[in-house]
Amino acid sequence: MDELVREWTARLLDTGNVTALVVGVVALVLVCYRSTWRVLRNVVTIAHEGGHAVVALLSGRKLNGIRLHSDTSGLTVSTGKAHGPGMVFTLLAGYPAVSLLGLGGAWLVTADLARVMLWVCIGLLVVMLLAIRNAYGVLSVVITGAVLFAVSWYATPAWQASCCALLSWFLLFGGIRPIAELRGKRVRGRASESDADQLARLTGLPGGVWLGTWFLVGIAALVVGAQWLLVMPQV
Predict the structure, then answer these.
(1) What is the DSSP letter of 61?
(2) How far is it, in rounded angstroms, from Cα 139 to Cα 25?
(3) Is pLDDT larger for residue 144 or for residue 232?
(4) Residue 170 DSSP SS3
(5) Where are the transmembrane segments (predicted)?
(6) Beta partners for residue 79, in sequence order
(7) How many structural domains comprise the chain?
(8) Residue burial 163-188, b: 16+ Cβ < 10 Å; e: rest
(9) Helix 34-58 and helix 114-129: axis angle, to 10°?
(10) How far apart are CA 212 and CA 95, in angstroms?
């Protein structure tokens, strides 16, 4: 056990991994600091609503549109049965989508595929843009896509890897904070139409069960993603 800890520590203190650790700390600050979170939470909302949209389509529902709002909330509207597995999975998908995207990004960074990650994200944003139904949503998606395009086009490979690591860390941390925020809103009785409460009405399981499930998924993704980013060769 001691040998394993020493080996892990040695790999962590490798120059590239120290860089990844610093990037992770920066991402954590961006998520925890209220002013930066208020702006960057739009990225989390895009991923959240994208998760709803993808699962809605995969479950056979018709996607009517996505709206992103200036208060960083969002709404994905789909039509189909108002109950059953399709609706349940659609509602379930939003919060885990953020963490799972961060986990996927972490894997791509450690596999030295940062440029691929950038273009996959840009492609997903272009597709999502087709479903956006309000001006603020269009602006949010276009700005996010423009930043990613600039990194992919102008940044050196090392900077691309660092930026992708930052995005991965941000999604891994950012996938957890909204769950805590939702819990607080539910305690104050201000989230009766939240994903958790809608799931509670559909399934009979308390909303807290869904919050707990999302939290565990987020923590698991963070642990695995952090291990990939910190102890595997990258940047």
Answers:
(1) P
(2) 28
(3) 144
(4) helix
(5) 12-33, 88-107, 113-131, 136-153, 159-180, 209-230
(6) 62
(7) 1
(8) bbbbbbbbbbbbbbbbbeebbeebee
(9) 70
(10) 11
As a whole number, mean pLDDT of residues 165-180 equals 96
Amino acid code (one letter) for 170: F
Nearest-CA neighbor of 73 among 194, 180, 192, 210?
194
178 closest CA partner among 53, 7, 47: 47
Cβ–Cβ under 8 Å, residues 197 and 207? yes
What would the two tokens of residue 10 be? 């040695």
Residue 24 lies in a domain: yes
Contacts of 79 (CB under 8 A, 6+ apart): 61, 62, 64
Under a CB-based contact definition with an 8 Å cutoff, are residues 100 and 133 in contact? Answer: no
pLDDT digits (tens, 9 = 90+) for 63-110: 999 999 999 999 999 998 888 899 999 999 999 999 999 999 999 999
pLDDT digits (tens, 9 = 90+) for 115-172: 999 999 999 999 999 999 999 999 999 999 999 999 999 999 989 999 999 999 999 9
Where do the DSSP E strands lie in the chain?
62-68, 74-79
Q: What number of other Cβ atoms are within 10 A of residue 32's Cβ?
A: 11
Which structural domain, as residue segments, surrounds residue 36?
Answer: 2-49+94-231
What are the structure tokens assigned to 190, written together?
A: 């201000």
Residue 63 covered by a domain: no
Tell me if 169 sits within 8 A of 163, measured CB to CB: no
7, HSE (Cβ side, Cα atoms, 13 Å):
5
Q: Which amino acid is at 81?
A: K
Q: Is residue 175 part of a domain?
A: yes
Residue 235 binned pLDDT confidence (cut-offs 50, 70, 90): very low
